[in-house]
Amino acid sequence: MKKEIIIYTISDSLGGTSRKLLAAVTAQYPDLIFDNRHRFPFVTKKEELLEILQDALKDNAVVITTLVDDGLARLAREFSQANGLAYLDLLHPFFEIIEQKTGERPIEVPGVIHRLDTEYFNKISAIEFAVKYDDGKNPQGFLDSDIVLLGVSRTSKTPLSIYLANKGYKVSNLPLIPEIPLPQILDKVDRKRLIGLICEPDKLAKVRNNRLDSLGLSHSSSYTDVNKIYEEIEYSEAVFKKYQAHVINMTDKSIEETAYLIEEHLKGLN
Amino acid sequence: MKKEIIIYTISDSLGGTSRKLLAAVTAQYPDLIFDNRHRFPFVTKKEELLEILQDALKDNAVVITTLVDDGLARLAREFSQANGLAYLDLLHPFFEIIEQKTGERPIEVPGVIHRLDTEYFNKISAIEFAVKYDDGKNPQGFLDSDIVLLGVSRTSKTPLSIYLANKGYKVSNLPLIPEIPLPQILDKVDRKRLIGLICEPDKLAKVRNNRLDSLGLSHSSSYTDVNKIYEEIEYSEAVFKKYQAHVINMTDKSIEETAYLIEEHLKGLN
């Protein structure tokens, strides 16, 4: 039977930082079960914090905190030390380093990470842009895009567009279908912004089969025929060559990894 | 003049955890400039790591590492201690707590957080779902949705749909426009899944004005007329009442905060 470990995450904001770290850490323990349902966002009162810490102690849990308030963080630290509670403060070790370096102290305002500032609104409008110009819906948008993704069906164009939009890029994408002529406006797009996505045909056939399964459709179509897919990929490679698109092979890569390669390509151009 | 602090992030994977923490920390220091352009993902060799650490020392930087490999992490720690380099290891304090609790050691495989597993593919298909059923494009999708967002123009329906899709929910949304009849299928949607978004009219007028600016359009339209917006909001509130939608006021809330309230509402129903 797998061992279980209970995690309490406590934050005076939403607690997103703890969850991100937790995802990275738990991935390193395939043989352990992490029970991370004990999430306490928006904790701002000492009494409330103390109650949660007492419950954590009863549960023999590991406590992770992202509390910007120094008083709350100190309470959690002292309680944990006094009671032998396993405890990790993600923020204050960093705050201490910054104080040593610069003499500056944190403003201790929870949740400012989600400030509704210009950067935030740019991100929102980049996401709206990606949704609007997904799937070649309005090729006019190619001219305003930072990145135009090209690829045959199931090469992750949509999730990749959204992921890059989350990083603030204006992204559009165009599915390449041999039977459908390319929009003329593609001639006018800055070649440096064109990214061609390819995938190994066998892998693509598998992904497409899964796709049909999830839609409840049968498999006997050219959509999943490996020979047909070879033709499609060849066609797409010819398009990439013609338009001098930067080609990325996304087989077995996560969206995050493919996005990283695209960002590196763009940086290399500056 | 603002003080500057140089941050080096070193990871044997993409380094997303460091960046998330860094965003939370830097938000606490509005008077400091953080130079976080020094990002070193996919570092897996000791020589490479040592070079980066030496550069960090020259730059008087703060080093943040997410290195799952114990040998690399130890090298970074020992180098930093020996040379007085400010250094923060995000993973190993957590690894140590887990070892104390369970005796288990991490598998030390970089990047497993981006495993292409079922959860990952569910997330991808939720994002595709949200893009497909954005803006009431295909109301048939309402029946398959975990969440259907309703609201007048500029109540953050699209970015909210995408954010919730990132958490694995299947989300569709419908813009409410007094002049356009509601799709009949709305009658068949489980009321518990309906979320109505409202916003203070003055705030909405401001957001819409910004929207027109960004599109390069003039402002003399009913779209930004506060009286007209009052009518729209009233209409939307009547719709929410009729369909018993759960109403959330998103004025001055970030997407993350609004999404949190929606998730809490859904949890409360289980």
Question: How would you concisely characterize the structure shown here?
Answer:
The structure is a homodimer of 270-residue chains. By secondary structure, chain A is an alpha/beta fold. The first copy, chain A, is built from 9 helices and 8 strands.
Keywords:
elongated, 4-stranded parallel β-sheet, 45% helix, Rossmann fold, 270 residues, homodimer, alpha/beta
Topology:
2 copies of one chain form a homodimer.
Chain A: E1 3-11, H1 16-26, E2 32-40, H2 46-58, E3 62-66, H3 70-83, E4 86-89, H4 92-102, H5 118-132, E5 147-151, H6 157-166, E6 171-175, E7 194-198, H7 201-215, H8 226-242, E8 246-249, H9 255-269
Parallel strand pairs in A: 1-2, 1-3, 3-4, 5-6, 5-7, 7-8
Helix pairs in contact in A: 2-3, 5-6, 6-9, 7-8
Tell me what you see in this structure.
Two copies of one chain form a homodimer. The first copy, chain A, has 270 residues and is an alpha/beta fold. Chain A folds into two domains: 112 residues, Rossmann fold (3-Layer(aba) Sandwich), CATH 3.40.50; 151 residues, Rossmann fold (3-Layer(aba) Sandwich). Chain A has nine helices and eight strands. A four-stranded parallel sheet of chain A has the order 2-1-3-4, with helices on both faces. Chain A has a four-stranded parallel sheet with strand order 6-5-7-8, sandwiched between helices. In chain A, helix 6 crosses helix 9 and helix 7 packs across helix 8. Chain A is elongated. Chain A starts with a strand and ends with a helix.
